[in-house]
Amino acid sequence: MNRFVACYALAVTVIAKGFFCVQISAQEWSVQTMTLTELYDLADRQSQRMRISEVALQAADEGVAAAKSAMLPSVDLSLQGSYTGNAFMLSRGFSASGTTDYIVPGVGTVPIENGKQDTPHWGNSFTAQVSQVLYAGGAIRSGIRMAGLGREMAELDVEKNRQEIRLLLTGYYLDICKLDNQAEVVRQNIALTRQELEHMKARRGEGTVLQNDITRYEFQLQSLELTLTKLRDASAIINHQLVTMLHLPENTLLSPDKNELETEMNSLSAIAGRETWQQSAADNNLGIRQARIAANLAEEKMKQVRAESLPSIAIVAENHLFGPYTQDLIPKDCNVNVWFVGIGVKFNLGSLWKNRHNIRKAGLEQRQSMETVALVQEQVETAVQADYTNLLTSCTEVKTQQKQVELAQQNYSVVQKRYQNDLALLTDMVDASNMKLSAEMELVNARIAMLYNFCKLKYSTNTL
Q1: Strand (E) positions, 204-311?
Q2: Per-residue pLDDT tens for 125-138?
Q3: Which of 54, 182, 284, 404 is most enclosed, with most CB atoms within 10 A?
Q4: pLDDT at 7 > cutoff 70
Q5: CB 112 within 8 A of CB 102
């Protein structure tokens, strides 16, 4: 028993200290009221995902520069030092004895003894080669266009990540707003419940209210306070996710700008027609634009594969400086300089039959990419249709919930007066209170859902 008491006391102490720490940290919150636009701008600057995509875009820029460098001339330099051993001359019968006739121009035949020949040992070689491609079957220009299309794809990836981050931030932002609004509704109902409890306790002294009635309303109050705590905790979790995503200090508390949200909701009274949104999606949707770029890439790849079956032509200039001269029967200890300029033609004859399957494969991939464009267009059209319909449904739901809140408030007022005049039961009062709370909460959810569906429609058209 003593051990149990000690453990219990320790647990109470730890909880008390934790509660004390929470209270201290709560006093250190830095509240920042932000609009959605400010949140978007902050994410563009500080989101890790945006940084990664921007680095990928810079790498694509370098890829374009590298592809263009293939049009520049190539210069190869080679410098070599060597040690050459003695030459050894043999007869045609591989005998080291006897002599070999050596023809010297202007002198005649001179017999040279077979065997080891004195040879200059230290050698050097310097080679410079310059070449400029004149024609490569279009492979170089196709490579440059592919690099440019790759850069466009990386640029669209940046914008796509920006749109996805904004939709995610919008969800978090509206969730916080919804939870705050729900918490405000609960606080108002808590105030009404406490006020009603005071009236009931006063009537209890007059003997017109039973203690059981007061107990049930106190239970209702405890339930509302628990709901308020859960809403605050849920809001704290989402706030932490936002703060982490935006790399803000941990003690930052983001607060939605209610005026901006109210303006956005009021602007939804005039929604553009469905055809307008479909046209906007056809012009701006990043998925469609990326699919078209992928089709262009497949076309350029087809050109490159075909270029492998075409000859390449280049201007070549070389200069060789080497020594000693060992290409003669008797090596000469001297340096020799030789240069030439010419045109080189290279053609892989085997590509005429080896490259056929690659050409067919590239053609099928090009056809597949064109079919993908059509598929993406269908998917985007379906998504815009669904999001537009959901937006209209949520607008209707908001109007319905507004009417239900009005009716619930009227019902609560009537039941409250009847209860105060002993014309209604406590259960009627509790039911009316719950109906009023439920209607107000549903209205908050409907308004936030309407705004989220509007943002989702803008995301489908990539105009968020």
Answers
A1: 252-256
A2: 999 999 998 888 88
A3: 182
A4: no
A5: yes
